[in-house]
Every structure is written in structure tokens, then in C-alpha cells.
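does this look right to u?? S-adenosylmethionine version
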Amino acid sequence: MNDPRQIWDQRYGLGQASLADNWLEHWGAAWLAHAHGQGYQALDIGCGNGHESAALLALGWQVTATEISPTALAAAEERNPAARHLLADVRTMPEIASASMDLAVAHLSLHYFDQAGSLQAFAEIARVLKPGGLLLGSVNAEDDLNYGAPADASGWEPVLVDGVPKQFFTSPKLLSCLRQHYELLELRKSISLRYGAPKSVWDFAARRLPPT
Ligand SMILES: C[S@@+](CC[C@H](N)C(=O)[O-])C[C@H]1O[C@@H](n2cnc3c(N)ncnc32)[C@H](O)[C@@H]1O
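got this back:
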């Protein structure tokens, strides 16, 4: 099995991928406090079992949640029936109208691609965000040594970890993905304890620039 969709689906089927670290409720809270909220449109990318979607619904957002794993999507749908759920790869989301989202949240779901795929994912999110819309994300950092980071992560070749290609971002790599369509508002290195051993990530907030 080497299709990431099947691998993720199997993980969710075995209950191996459903951990939560309240990232959005903690770091994201300050950004959400400045965002529109009530009644506005939020996109939860790679929603897993729907933890971030549930937090957004509780704040009054209208939520669209996407996944490549049908098993995860079904679990998220059962947990959050008020959200709209779509089986969609972040690199191409044709069901989502351009400039329709006020907020996009991508918690640990944007670090599975090579350079072309990463640029495609950030551009596709920019397409669906309204100008001025907010992107909140968290991606593997270059020093995430407990979870597969290579000694030198300056290149773009993904590393195969447990069958899934993983990207490890240096700040220049992440900035290169954001440069064309976004204004960077915050970038911080942080440690997640979600999987037990410390996991190093970049958290970032960025605003969708008006199309040129
Ligand atoms: C580490 S999990 C995070 C799940 C959830 N955001 C959370 O924080 O609990 C990564 C998720 O990204 C999804 N994913 C992987 N590749 C994806 C892609 N190309 N498009 C959309 N989602 C993807 C996986 O199925 C998985 O649910």
C-alpha cells in the first residue's frame, strides 16, 4: 500500500490518528478573536476526526471540512453534523467556490507534498479564500527529529515516514509558499506534545492578499 489516501484511511480505521492537542483553542484563539466568527465561512483542511471543526462550530462559524480519508470524513461528519463535509485533496478543491471562505485552518495537513505540490496547495487555499481572509496553519519544522526530519531539510524532497511522504519546512521554504498570495502575520516555532515525544512545528497566520 503506497497511496497516502489508503494509509490515512487505514490509520483512522485502526483509531491511530485521532489525537488532539487543542492547537486552535490555544494558539489560534487570539487570531480567531480578531476574525469575523459568527455566521462566517471557515474551511477545515485535512479535518481528521473533526476536532478543529467542532471548535469552529462552537464559535459560530459555518464550517466546510475536507479530508482525503473517507473513514476520517465519516467520523468528522458524525461528530459535527452541522458542518459540510467534502472528500477533497487540498491541492484541488473544485467543489469550493473561489473567494468563498473567510478563514482556512490547516492543522498538520499541509506537509505531505514536494515543492510543486506545496505551492499548489497554498495557491488553491488562496483561491478559495476571500481577499483579506485568514489562513491559520501548522506544519512540520526542519528540526522535527522525533518524527522523521532529515539532517538537512533545506531541499524539497519529501521523506517517507511510515509509508507517507512528509515535508519538513524551514522558514524560507514556508515563506516561499506564502509569498505570492499572502501577507505573513505571525510565524512561530512551537512544540506539540500531541504524539508523546516533542514534535517541532511552525505555526503561522497569514492574510490572503487581494488578487493582482
Ligand atoms: C496529522 S493529521 C491532522 C488531522 C487534523 N487536522 C487534526 O489536527 O487532528 C493529517 C490529516 O491530513 C489529511 N491529509 C493528508 N493529505 C491530505 C491532502 N492531500 N489533502 C487533504 N487532507 C490531507 C490526512 O488524511 C489526515 O487526516
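Residues 115-128 form the longest helix (14 residues). idk if thats expected tbh
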